[in-house]
Amino acid sequence: MLQGKLITMDEFTIQETRKFPQATGELSSLLRDIALAGKVINKQVRKAGLSDILGTQGATNVQGEEQMKLDVLADQTLIHILKNSNDCAGIASEENDNHVCYEDTFSANSKYVVLFDPLDGSSNIDVNASIGTIFSIYRRVSELGKTCVEADFLQPGNKLMAAGYIIYGSSTMLVYATKLGVNGFTLEPSIGEFCLSHPNIKCPEMGKIYSLNQGNTNRFSEGMKAYLDYCMENNKEEGRPYSHRYIGSMVGDLHRTLIKGGIFMYPADKKSVKGKLRLQYECNPMAFIVEAAGGVASTGYCDILDVVPTELHQRVPIYIGSKKMIEKALEFVKEKEAVA
Ligand code: P6P
């Protein structure tokens, strides 16, 4: 609500497009299609707890039809809507082994491709914790008019045109970033529109929350263990001990980190030697968003956005959030790793 007026996401993206006379509006149109998919997924997520009663999501409905699990439903919803969008040449999804090219003429002439994790954190559905859809939009590198190729989906995060997430939490929000900045839109169910609620989001450069699966500590490097001790150490002047928060849903943990500040980590460890989270579906889009808001996102040794992908589902370690907290964490991780 700005000056008492609701601004829908469509109105906002059109206003942004007008700042660039050469803009064609295709990116705005693609964001609108992703928002539509988010509304459809939101409808299904909001009744997940009734699946046994309603016969949906993995059960059979009154016609005896096999219902799809919620994350497969989310995946199929995005694939279908983007196929009919006229602004997307193809997609790559965390749920599918390979990328999908849309063969029709309109799609082949589209200049963008989209990657997504259709329902990140879906294991939290049963306990009604926040889950989310994460998306990335790249300008394709392959020739317009032809079907897209795998190289279109193996671009580093610093080539992103836009990235965002839809969080299905206490309210449903769509947050997206371009190089111009980060803006958040809350779904107003009575009109079915995402409306501007968090303009120009900035990630505080310092925070008081550290977020990771501390149960993995025994598998961490010595540097990582030393940083955890630092987080838990009493030091009133430097505002420690920090508070520990961890939902086990990246979108939920990252949304809190973006808004309140803090540090989210999923380091490499003896079991996940390259980290657990996927570069193309989780780390790059979140790094693009957080860095557009003034934060930092690192693998521990380089900026996440500079990693050149070699395979669609590759994983990387991630340290992401408030600039000053990441800088301090990397002193421990880099220094101890250098010694090891
Ligand atoms: P762990 C969810 O499965 C996910 O991909 C992210 O959303 C989340 O941050 C992470 O994995 C949780 O992993 O090992 O702590 O359960």
Description of the structure:
With 340 residues, the protein is an alpha+beta fold. 31% of the residues lie in helices and 21% in strands. α1 (9-18) runs antiparallel to α2 (26-45) and α6 (222-232) packs across α9. The model has no long low-confidence stretch (mean pLDDT 91). The site of 6-O-phosphono-alpha-D-fructofuranose has 10 residues, from α7. 6-O-phosphono-alpha-D-fructofuranose (P6P) binds at residues 120-121, 123, 213, 248-250, 253, 276-277.
Give keywords.
340 residues, alpha+beta, Fructose-1,6-Bisphosphatase, Chain A, domain 1, D-Maltodextrin-Binding Protein, domain 2, 2 domains, 8-stranded mixed beta sheet, 5-stranded mixed beta sheet, 9 helices, 13 strands, 21% strand, globular, binds 6-O-phosphono-alpha-D-fructofuranose
- Please write the string of helix (H) and strand (E) elements: HHHHEEHEEEEEEEHEHEHEEH
The CATH topology of the largest domain turns out to be: Fructose-1,6-Bisphosphatase, Chain A, domain 1
* CATH homology superfamily name of the largest domain: Fructose-1,6-Bisphosphatase, subunit A, domain 1
Q: What is the terminal-to-terminal distance?
A: 53 Å
Shape: globular
Gyration radius from CA atoms, angstroms:
20 Å
- Overall CATH class of the largest domain: Alpha Beta
Beta content: 15-25%
The domain tally reads 2
Number of helices: 9
- Count of strand segments: 13
Low-confidence stretches: none
